[in-house]
Amino acid sequence: MAEEKENKEQEEKEEKSGGNKLLLIVIIILLLLLLVIGGLVAYFLLSNNSDDTQAPEQKQEKVIKKKKVSDMAEVGPIYPLDQFIVNLVSNNADRYLKCKISFELDSPDLQQEIDKKLPAIRDIIINILSSKTVEEIQTAKGKEKLKEEIRRKVNEILTTGEIKHVYFTEFVIQ
């Protein structure tokens, strides 16, 4: 009988330790499964978030960037202008802008019209440049706005074609 009690106690201990090992294995498997599922969910949420849930403006910007890259492959005739040096609007100190500008034309025929109207075009550009502050043209966004304003104003006086792009080939603020 004493031997039977010892055998029963030993079997109970083995069952408890076996049960503990089984419980530990199940917990580890569940944790690994949760980690894998969590990783997959995070991956899908982040990958879908960048493409599907973007605002239409952001999708349009991507399309515009692709168009810009393809536009650069088809650059039209370039018309370089002489250097411009203008005073910038400033409250406390004399500030200067020195820049060189080149126009991308939509057709070679436009070069002759620009040659004829060059004094008026230079006057327009000087007026635009000298009306700006350092803060307005210091950033990349400010330079883009300045290019667009120059393009728009110069195109207003052209009749045989238009300027597609304005390029700053030199831009120094002092």
Report on this structure:
Strands 1, 2, 3 and 4 form a 4-stranded antiparallel β-sheet that branches. The chain folds into 2 domains: 52 residues; 99 residues, Band 7 domain (Tetrahydropterin Synthase, Chain A, 2-Layer Sandwich). The relative contact order is 0.11. 64% of the residues lie in helices and 17% in strands. The chain contains 6 helices and 4 strands. Helix 4 packs antiparallel against helix 6. The model has no long low-confidence stretch (mean pLDDT 83). The radius of gyration is 36 Å and the shape is elongated.
Radius of gyration: 36 Å
Determine the structural class based on helices, strands and strand pairing: alpha+beta
Order of helices and strands: HHEEEHHHHE
Strand content: 15-25%
Distance between the termini: 105 Å
Transmembrane segments: 21-46
Function: Controls the rotational direction of flagella during chemotaxis.
Keywords: Cell membrane, Cell projection, Chemotaxis, Cilium, Flagellar rotation, Flagellum, Membrane, Transmembrane, Transmembrane helix
Main location: membrane
What secondary-structure arrangement, pairings included, does this model have?
Blueprint: H1 2-51, H2 56-73, E1 78-80, E2 84-88, E3 95-105, H3 110-116, H4 118-130, H5 134-138, H6 140-157, E4 163-173
Antiparallel strand pairs: 1-3, 2-3, 3-4
